[in-house]
Amino acid sequence: MVVLGAPSIIPSTSATAAVRRAEALIPTPFGDFRMLAYADEPDAYAPHLALVHPEMKPDTEVIVRIHSECITGDLFGSKRCDCGEQLNRSMRIVSAGKGILIYLRQEGRGIGIINKLKAYQLQDHGMDTIQANVHLGLEIDARHYEVAQEMLADLGISKIQLLTNNPEKIEAFENGPVEVVRRLPIIIDPGKENLAYLRTKEISMGHWLKL
Ligand SMILES: Nc1nc2c(ncn2[C@@H]2O[C@H](COP(=O)(O)OP(=O)(O)OP(=O)(O)O)[C@@H](O)[C@H]2O)c(=O)[nH]1
Ligand SMILES: [Zn+2]
């Protein structure tokens, strides 16, 4: 018999702003994961998600990807960015390494899908990804990573190997409850549609891309 609301197989160790609200097994082409939803409100529409390998061991240096929502790239395969390919590759790496993928609901570097589409339109008229956000009166990058650290702490994790090319993500972990012991690059070969975007990330945002 399935008992709804049964105790989690992954113990919860904290209850901060990101409260674990629900979880279930999700079989994917990359393997099985437990999907856990974290939110302030019990029935929040867009909770942050953790995809946890069923054999993840919290007392090891867990391989972690912190992925920011990109509906255009992740869901529809847009070639304007590298997000969809990064997501697929991350799931493969995380599955093989018995790690965790955290999916943060901060679409468009935190400005939301409506503003991201407006920014894309400006980019189609010659601005780069930074200039477009500035033109709209928005932050270049409005993302935060505290919630990801809270989720990792909730899962009992204190040391991670972080899959990223973004120096700000590494800095965000300094002095926090979770230590990044190693950075693992996740570089996607550029295509003609995203080369300029990736170059801007490398040159103006300091991403470690070696293009
Ligand atoms: N505002 C804005 N957001 C974008 C644009 N292209 C992608 N994004 C968003 O950028 C976020 C992904 O950021 P990236 O800079 O690709 O990667 P990252 O997460 O910072 O770094 P990595 O860990 O190395 O992948 C997602 O939330 C996307 O929706 C754009 O042109 N404008
Ligand atoms: Zn994207």
From TrEMBL:
<comment type="pathway">
    <text>Cofactor biosynthesis; riboflavin biosynthesis; 5-amino-6-(D-ribitylamino)uracil from GTP: step 1/4.</text>
</comment>
<dbReference type="GO" id="GO:0008686">
    <property type="term" value="F:3,4-dihydroxy-2-butanone-4-phosphate synthase activity"/>
</dbReference>
<feature type="binding site">
    <location>
        <position position="70"/>
    </location>
    <ligand>
        <name>Zn(2+)</name>
    </ligand>
</feature>
<feature type="binding site">
    <location>
        <position position="86"/>
    </location>
    <ligand>
        <name>GTP</name>
    </ligand>
</feature>
<dbReference type="GO" id="GO:0008270">
    <property type="term" value="F:zinc ion binding"/>
</dbReference>
<keyword id="KW-0342">GTP-binding</keyword>
<dbReference type="InterPro" id="IPR000926">
    <property type="entry name" value="RibA"/>
</dbReference>
<feature type="binding site">
    <location>
        <position position="81"/>
    </location>
    <ligand>
        <name>Zn(2+)</name>
    </ligand>
</feature>
<feature type="binding site">
    <location>
        <begin position="65"/>
        <end position="69"/>
    </location>
    <ligand>
        <name>GTP</name>
    </ligand>
</feature>
<dbReference type="GO" id="GO:0005829">
    <property type="term" value="C:cytosol"/>
</dbReference>
<comment type="function">
    <text>Catalyzes the conversion of GTP to 2,5-diamino-6-ribosylamino-4(3H)-pyrimidinone 5'-phosphate (DARP), formate and pyrophosphate.</text>
</comment>
<keyword id="KW-0378">Hydrolase</keyword>
<feature type="active site" description="Proton acceptor">
    <location>
        <position position="141"/>
    </location>
</feature>
<feature type="binding site">
    <location>
        <position position="129"/>
    </location>
    <ligand>
        <name>GTP</name>
    </ligand>
</feature>
<keyword id="KW-0862">Zinc</keyword>
<feature type="domain" description="GTP cyclohydrolase II">
    <location>
        <begin position="21"/>
        <end position="185"/>
    </location>
</feature>
<comment type="similarity">
    <text>Belongs to the GTP cyclohydrolase II family.</text>
</comment>
<keyword id="KW-0686">Riboflavin biosynthesis</keyword>
<feature type="binding site">
    <location>
        <position position="164"/>
    </location>
    <ligand>
        <name>GTP</name>
    </ligand>
</feature>
<feature type="binding site">
    <location>
        <begin position="107"/>
        <end position="109"/>
    </location>
    <ligand>
        <name>GTP</name>
    </ligand>
</feature>
<dbReference type="GO" id="GO:0005525">
    <property type="term" value="F:GTP binding"/>
</dbReference>
<feature type="active site" description="Nucleophile">
    <location>
        <position position="143"/>
    </location>
</feature>
<keyword id="KW-0547">Nucleotide-binding</keyword>
<keyword id="KW-0479">Metal-binding</keyword>
<dbReference type="InterPro" id="IPR032677">
    <property type="entry name" value="GTP_cyclohydro_II"/>
</dbReference>
<dbReference type="GO" id="GO:0003935">
    <property type="term" value="F:GTP cyclohydrolase II activity"/>
</dbReference>
<dbReference type="GO" id="GO:0009231">
    <property type="term" value="P:riboflavin biosynthetic process"/>
</dbReference>
<feature type="binding site">
    <location>
        <position position="83"/>
    </location>
    <ligand>
        <name>Zn(2+)</name>
    </ligand>
</feature>
<dbReference type="Pfam" id="PF00925">
    <property type="entry name" value="GTP_cyclohydro2"/>
</dbReference>
<feature type="binding site">
    <location>
        <position position="169"/>
    </location>
    <ligand>
        <name>GTP</name>
    </ligand>
</feature>
<protein>
    <recommendedName>
        <fullName>GTP cyclohydrolase-2</fullName>
        <ecNumber>3.5.4.25</ecNumber>
    </recommendedName>
</protein>
<comment type="similarity">
    <text>In the N-terminal section; belongs to the DHBP synthase family.</text>
</comment>
<dbReference type="InterPro" id="IPR036144">
    <property type="entry name" value="RibA-like_sf"/>
</dbReference>
